[in-house]
UniProtKB/TrEMBL annotation:
It comes from the Bacteria. InterPro entries: DUF892_YciF-like (IPR010287), Ferritin-like (IPR012347), Ferritin-like_SF (IPR009078), YciF (IPR047114). This is DUF892 family protein. Transmembrane segments: none annotated. It comes from Mucilaginibacter aquariorum. PANTHER family: PROTEIN YCIF.
Amino acid sequence: MTNESGKLFPKQIQLGSEKLKSFFINHLNRIYSAKAHLVSKLPLLNDEVYFKDLQFAIQETVEDVEKQMARMDVIYELLDAVKADGSINGLSGLIDDAFDAIAEQADEAELRDMSIIFYLQNIESMEMASFQVLQMAAVKLKNNQIKQLLQENYDEAKADRTLLLFIAAKYIIK
């Protein structure tokens, strides 16, 4: 299709419900697998943290991720879908980079904490974006309960990101 000036613009995407459901479950698997990886790795950071408020934020993030995974379990049930391992190369690479950066700052606690905050911020941003896209897909799946569960996950990820920003500001000003 073209507009009045002759430029091409995309057609509206029309996915059949089975294709959309498959896309949704595939990406839900990716997010779920990434969250499981995150829950296994985040507690390891607490031993590296110098600033106590950051330790609190990491603990709260782990608890929130576990709640998000529980909501995702409900979504799987609502879709009558089975969880499968999803590719997490991007997120696991980001987490591995975080641990490398932390190791590079082994002798400087403040910089190590800033590296932790930097990477956790990036991870939370990726989660928020993922939940937003799945929420849009949930609208097409015509399931308000799934949409609501994803909204709750998005809100928690956003709150964790805001907490990390607050801690970063407090830490830098300290």
